[in-house]
Design goal:
Blueprint lengths: L2 E7 L16 E2 L2 E2 H10 L6 E6 L4 H8 L9 E2 L4 H12 L6 E6 L7 H10 L5 E7 L4 E5 L2 E6 L5 E10 H9 L9 H7 L4 E5 L10 H13 L2 E14 L3 E4 L2 E4 L3 E2 L7 H13 L5 H4 L13 H13 L2 E11 L9 H12 L6 E6 L5 H4 L3 E12 L1
Parallel strand pairs: 1-4, 1-6, 4-5, 7-11, 16-17
Antiparallel strand pairs: 2-3, 6-10, 7-10, 8-9, 12-15, 12-18, 13-14, 16-18
Length: 382
């Protein structure tokens, strides 16, 4: 392991107002932390990622990280940021990397070129700090009145990632004084580590308030390439007393016939996601000729498609599914279906639509011989 990312996500985020900690709040349909992890997962120079979480957030973390590659088991943080970083570094020391990038879990918009720049700086320095030069006039105040201006030519606004040669920063944390430091560069400087400045990015904001979430969503939606994928699936009815649709067991006087559990809804969504990233169809990844998938739960297929999308640098923005059948009635189960699809994809339920229609008695669905599902998935890449 050459380069590891250490994501610090153990804070409570009280300034964001009531609700979940800010790193788990929804941003463009996914938890903030999932966006942060995705930025490092998709970077080719990052070999492994370790996240430091609060001991109360295990289930929230599992939901945010579901299906993502490169992740090491999370560790619990301490009472302060410094203690949390120390805990993460100690966990990484078991198989120590050459370099480590320490990054705030609540900075979800870190660009790939900034990660690359911090890593490159470690070729000539023991540490690197992302930041932005101060361009506004900085002025002291006295009793609410403007006072003298502060020279700004040497002032920078600190960001993360902060990158270090691993052994150097681990040793610095182990020998740090009892003083509480606001970031890891302060720990490094006390230990005599030279830290290069790497120009950061205005969009690399730290989520602190609800306003920051709104700004981050605007940034996400303005960039990247929008892709649309379509999926369609059909299964005939056979013996049984229930059908599986969108991961929900629906009572019925017949079952659906298929090699897996014949969940036409999840199959259509899976094909739509795969189509949006140009990854073929469900049969390419899970051939019906393979006995491993006989009777398999179709959430496996959709989770795999979501994982491939994340690895391609894509985020799932919206899924719209239409189930076509005379029976069973979909309406009573639609909300449960939306919730299950959202859970599998790791996005907010508000970005899932499940609806149904009939063919007015026409065709195979009208005759009650089977049902069909049609899905459209919108993904943003980049």
């Amino acid at each position: 392991m050459k380069v590891a990312a250490l994501i610090v996500a153990a804070g409570r985020g009280s300034r964001a107002g009531p609700g979940a900690p800010k790193q788990y709040r929804p941003l463009a349909g996914q938890p903030v932390l999932r966006h942060t992890l995705g930025a490092f997962i998709s970077h080719p120079e990052i070999d492994a990622i370790l996240t430091v979480i609060h001991e109360d957030d295990a289930s929230a973390y599992e939901a945010a990280a579901n299906g993502l590659p490169k992740l090491l088991p999370p560790v619990h943080g301490g009472a302060t940021r410094q203690a949390s970083v120390r805990a993460g570094l100690e966990a990484l020391s078991v198989e120590a990397p050459d370099f480590v990038l320490i990054h705030d879990g609540a900075r979800p918009l870190v660009p790939a070129r900034l990660i690359s720049g911090c890593i490159a700086a470690l070729g000539t320095h023991s540490g690197a700090q992302a930041g932005l030069p101060v361009t506004d006039t900085i002025r002291r105040t006295a009793n609410g009145l403007a006072s003298e201006a502060v020279p700004r030519d040497t002032l920078w606004r600190a960001q993360t990632p902060q990158a270090f040669r691993f052994e150097a920063i681990l040793d610095a944390h182990r020998h740090a004084s009892g003083e509480e430091y606001t970031d890891d560069v302060a720990v490094a400087i006390e230990a005599g580590i030279d830290v290069a400045m790497v120009e950061g990015d205005e969009d690399n904001i730290k989520i602190t308030s609800a306003t920051d979430l709104q700004r981050a969503e605007r940034i996400l939606m303005r960039g990247g390439e929008t892709r649309t994928g379509m999926g369609y699936d059909v299964h005939r009815f056979g013996p049984g007393d229930h059908v599986w649709l969108c991961g929900v067991k629906v009572p019925h006087d017949a079952g659906l016939v298929g090699h897996s559990d014949a969940d036409a809804g999840l199959h259509a969504i899976t094909d739509a996601v795969l189509g949006a990233i140009g990854a073929g169809d469900i049969g390419k990844h899970f051939p019906p000729s393979d006995p491993r998938w006989k009777g398999a739960s179709s959430d496996i297929f959709l989770a795999h498609a979501a994982k491939l999308a994340a690895e391609a640098g894509a985020r799932i923005s919206y899924v719209d599914l239409t189930l076509i059948c005379e029976r069973p009635k979909i309406g009573p189960h639609a909300e449960a279906m939306r919730a299950r699809v959202a859970d599998i994809l790791g996005i907010d339920m508000s970005r899932i639509s499940v609806k149904a229609t009939t063919t007015e008695g026409l065709g195979f669905t009208g005759r009650g011989e089977g049902l069909a599902a049609q899905a459209i998935a919108t993904l943003i890449i980049g």
